[in-house]
From TrEMBL:
GO molecular function: RNA binding; tRNA pseudouridine(13) synthase activity
Protein name in the entry: tRNA pseudouridine synthase D
SUPFAM superfamilies: Pseudouridine synthase (SSF55120)
Residues at the catalytic site: D77
Gene: truD
Record GO biological process: tRNA pseudouridine synthesis
Gene Ontology cellular component terms for the protein in this record: cytosol
Lineage: Bacteria, Pseudomonadati, Pseudomonadota, Gammaproteobacteria, Alteromonadales
Keywords of the record: Isomerase, tRNA processing
Function: Responsible for synthesis of pseudouridine from uracil-13 in transfer RNAs.
Catalytic reactions of this protein: uridine(13) in tRNA = pseudouridine(13) in tRNA
PROSITE patterns xrefs: TRUD, UPF0024
Signal peptide residues on this chain, from the entry's feature table: none
Amino acid sequence: MTELTYLYGKPAVSADIRTHNSDFQVKEILPFLPDGEGEHHLLHIRKDGLNTAQVAEMISKFAKVHPKEVTFAGQKDKNAITEQWFGVRIPGKDTPDWAAMSNEQMQVLSFARHGKKLRTGALSGNRFTLVLRNVSDPQALVTRLEQVRDGGVPNYFGEQRFGHDGGNLVKARQMFEGRKVKDRNKRSLYLSAVRSELFNQVVSARLAKQDASGLGLLEGDCVMLSGSRSFFVAETWDETLKGRLAEKDIQLSAPLWGRGEMLAKGDAAEFEASVLASYELERSGLEKEGLTQERRALLLRPEQLSFKLDGDALTLDFCLPAGAFATSVLRELCEYSDVKELEWRRAVAERQAQEAANAPVGE
């Protein structure tokens, strides 16, 4: 994977993230309240050092239901403290003693019945509280934060979407070349990774075209209404449209690839097609899997952004819409080192070295 274009230039500041799990806190924002009735149980859970799948398995065993009856709105990292919602379908049974499920790594904050299944993506967003440590130039970081608050960041899909060292992309291409993948969750993961990579490449190329007046506007741009998935084609950029863009009423977009006609037209469609011309295998693979053309905003603007500086540590608070990545905000702020990721890589390297040392001669 090639390095993606920065909106304000590559940051000169360095910092550490995830020194402790408490340095990366995420709270899901549910757009509704449980209605108190129905066969679905909604659990609000805080977890520390567990991934979403592990918690879902614990819920399944505790409630004595099939794993497929446990759902969640979004995946959350293991190396973080996160508050998220889980849904459990338990028809015709009494309410389990959910509070008894709490342990050192997981606490049940609240629970209630609900009439509908909790589905993937059923969030309005996430609130983040992040601590950056060993910041090399705190004042330069504050200056960059002010830029981000005003102009946003590229809405890139974060590196976690692609797996360690881009492994999900490798497996996706193998799948497109004929390798069978029966596990539906894995297929979905690989398809999502490829679609995200194509989106990132178009965004990166578009940012590389920007001039002194900002992003170069193209005839035929597919423009999205802010806060909505609705879009329209800007056949020409008149002063009214430019004004709406400046006021952040509308925003530029890039493609989430799939079958069907490109949603951008004219010059914009030609530009996007030229960027993705070398991705024939990936484009055709997504189309054969039945995905259809969609759009995603090109820029991401953190909401309710605030920060507190304490020596060489900075605590950062902001909200992002569902599907947006905090790491995409961080990469525009600083050259960061993920301490937990580095610890994992060291542990893997040490284990591999030990296995090699213990292997019989000749293997």
